Amino acid sequence: MGDPTGRKGEDGEGSGPGDEADLSARLRRLDTRLGDARTRRDRDARAGSRAASDMSGLGKALRFSAEFIAGIFAGTGIGWALDQVAGTSPWGMIVGLVLGFAAGMLNIMRAAGELNRRPRSGTSPGEEAERPGSDDRTR
After folding, report:
1. How far apart are CA 61 and CA 44, in angstroms?
2. DSSP for 84-129?
3. For each of the chain's 139 residues, which pLDDT tens digit applies?
4. How many angstroms separate the CA atoms of 49 and 122, rounded?
5. Which end of the chain, C or N, has fewer beta carbons within 10 A?
6. Maximal CA-CA distance, the chain
7. CA atoms within 13 A on the CB side of 137
8. Rounded to an integer, what distance in angstroms lies between the CA atom of residue 70 and that of residue 79?
9. Residue 66 to residues 53, 63, 81, 95, 119: CA-CA distances in angstroms?
10. Function, please (predicted)?
11. Whole-angstrom Cα distance, residue 23 to residue 79?
12. The pTM is what?
């Protein structure tokens, strides 16, 4: 009785030069298909990672403006609270506004530094560490 799967037995029955040629042809086709699939996957991954990792100009502007406005509001709020407690209105709020402005600028510089320090899609982590200016001691 024959094998219902169509495979040849372990004794080598039915294996011949024609089967080896068929197997070689199938392996070549499989190799070609795998190569095409890898090429498509790599191309799609590069395009997707580039789009995801490169923040758009609008995204950067929104992040920077949020950092700046948060610093100003925090400083002004703390200054206003000090005015209410100490009764030095409006000087505490003015000083808080100036300090909030400075904190907002510092936040923007930190955020910009973070964006510049992120590894780009074409570099490996080892190359990122060797690049000048990517020293962790500057944090």
Report:
1. 28
2. HHH--TTHHHHHHHHHHHHHHHHHHHHHHHHHHHSPPTTS-HHHHH
3. 555 555 555 555 555 667 888 999 999 999 999 999 999 998 887 776 666 556 788 888 999 999 999 999 999 999 999 999 999 989 999 999 999 999 999 999 999 988 787 665 555 455 555 555 555 555 4
4. 10
5. N
6. 103
7. 1
8. 14
9. 20, 5, 22, 21, 24
10. A possible function for this protein is to guide the assembly of the membrane sector of the ATPase enzyme complex.
11. 80
12. 0.47
- Long-range contacts, stretch 133-136, CB < 8 angstroms, 24+ apart: none
Residue 42: how many other CB atoms lie within 10 Å: 10
Q: Are 96 and 75 in contact (CB under 8 A)?
A: yes
Q: Which two tokens stand for residue 79?
A: 């200054």
Say which amino acid occupies 97.
Answer: L
Residue type, 136: D
Give the pair of three-digit tokens for residue 126: 């080892």
Token pair for 111: 């955020």
Q: What is the distance between the alpha carbons of residues 1 and 11, in angstroms, rounded to a whole number?
A: 15
Contact 76, 93 (CB under 8 A): yes
